[in-house]
Amino acid sequence: MTNKVEMVFWDVQHGHATYLKTPNERHIVIDLGTGSYSDDKTEFSPLTHIKNNYKVEKLDYVIITHPHLDHIDDVLNFDSLSPKVLNRPKTLSNEKIMSGASDKDKPKFKKYCEINDRYNRDVTGSVYCPNNPENWGGLKITTFRNDECDDDNPNNHSSVTIFEYANTKVVIPGDNESTSLEYLMENGLFLKAIKDADILLAPHHGRESGYNSDFVKAVSPCITIVSDGKKVDTSANDRYSAISRGWTVYNSSGGSKKRKCLSTNSDGAIRIEFGDNYLHVKH
Fold first, then answer.
1. What DSSP letter does each residue of the chain carry, written as one string?
2. pLDDT of residue 228
3. How far is residue 233's CA from residue 249's CA, in Å, rounded to a whole number?
């Protein structure tokens, strides 16, 4: 046991991919974006990177918030890490998912649908059950999803996952848009789970369409992280900065500064460690 959680929010250009190592050294991935601005590697694969550089042989839990290309782009490398458990929105049919695929990207969507069909075993009660913190070294994992919306906008089927350990809380809401977040906030359990978090990944890549002031005020993060590309027409970064409380962030080249909002498109990969009585953020 390491008594800490390690997270990396990868720079995957316009997309999202996060890696998490639990206190008992289990490995979790949230979304499968690819690419990198900071290293000028348009083909950067986070899955290949953690396999080759972090020596991770298998993933214990994978969460795909929703099946848009910028969240599943690395899916062809999925089986190389033999994930034990997959969480994804089951309300979206394979037919619906394939209907939005371009000819160029059909192999990736076909692979996603094949995986979607394959992962159908109930893990309740198993050593990989996400709902039991003992399986994850004390890390509490809670997931919510709006299953009542129609399937015309897969963004609103995104999972919202809350990771909590040693009084530190991280909220990852996928690409939920404002109306979906408003619906979720009608659930008292959801409000309790997101309340007074430390780290918020901005919904829908920090776009205005995902900004919901009531949601952000409920989360009240120290730092908001935005995972997005360089060309953004509707950024809400300033609005997240206005509500976020601020935290000391360390620069890999030296020095530190109090920050309220970080963006992978300008700050690169963002690394976070938290455990008993500390939260360390570095980019």
1. --SEEEEEE---SSS--EEEE-TT--EEEE------TTTT-TT--HHHHHHHTS-----SEEE-----HHHHTTGGGGGGG--S-EE--TTS-HHHHHHT--TTTHHHHHHHHHHHHH-----TTSTT-TT-GGGGTT-EEEEEE--SS-TT-GGGG-EEEEEEETTEEEEE-TT--HHHHHHHTTSHHHHHHHTT-SEEEPGGGGBGGG--HHHHHHH--SEEEE---S--SSB-HHHHHHH---EEEE-TTS-EEEESEEEHHHH-SEEEEEETTEEEEE-
2. 86
3. 27
Low-confidence spans in the chain with pLDDT less than 50: none
Read off the tokens for 63: 């969460």
Q: What DSSP assignment string belongs to 62-74?
A: EE-----HHHHTT
Joined tokens for residue 23: 């206190």
- Token pair listed for 41: 């590697």
What pLDDT does 263 receive? 95
Contacts of 54 by beta carbon, 8 Å cutoff, 6+ apart: 19
| Structure confidence at residue 282 (pLDDT) | 96
Structure tokens that stand for 125 in this block = 């009660």
Assigned token pair, 259: 């920050």
> 18: which 2 tokens?
């996060």
- Cα dihedral: 134, 55, 4, 82 (round 10): -30
CB atoms within 10 A of CB 119: 16
Regarding pTM above 0.85, the answer is: yes
